[in-house]
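Researcher: We're teaching a course module on how sequence relates to structure. For the next exercise, students receive a sequence and then see the predicted structure as tokens, so they can try to spot secondary structure elements on their own. Here is the exercise chain.
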Amino acid sequence: MTEPTGLTDLELAALVSSRICHDVINPVAAISNGLEMLGEEQDADMREAAMDLIRKSATQASAKLQFARLAFGAAGSAGAEIDLRDAEKVSREFVAGTGKHEVIWEGPVVTLPKNQVKALLNLVALGVVALPRGGTVSVEIAGNPPEAVSFTVRAKGKAARLNEQVTALLSGSNGVEIDAHSIQPYYASRVATAAGLSLTAQAEDDEVTLKAA
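Model: And here is the predicted structure for the students to work with:
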């Protein structure tokens, strides 16, 4: 199922929910499989392997949910700002869970308006998507936060790329069909606009650069 770019609030909420469920279902299913193995297996080595699967999958599921809580939800603080230390923490744990990416984070320790941080976190997630074979996601927070801020996310790795659909949705183009798999760039564009930021994307020589300023 696809929907046109001009989504209603209900359609947007449904697609974001679907995306979060899609991201979390694999580690949750792995936990279920591990528990099933524990219930049936008597061999000590196999039981330990099942426990290792459960531990790793639980860590991965928790990291994805904590990331989604800040990137999509209303969490972060009782007010209207999020501490960048929290954003860095959930980003590192989220990216580490893939097993083939790492994060380099450079920026001040400040609190920023929620929508600015949401825009940044969605760019981090898109940086991971741009590296199907793994690589480095570098985050730079510049400007004069919190009065003025800009974000740059560089995804470096073999075969780094963004497809035309993602690039179009990041730029806010109209008439682009989207679904639960492509909702993230659309949401990133919406939340960046709400934060007073403009997004740009560029890909060349195994490197994708995403900017919000």
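Model: If you want an answer key for the exercise: DSSP finds six helices and seven strands in the chain. The beta strands are 81-83, 101-106, 111-113, 135-144, 148-156, 199-204, 207-212.
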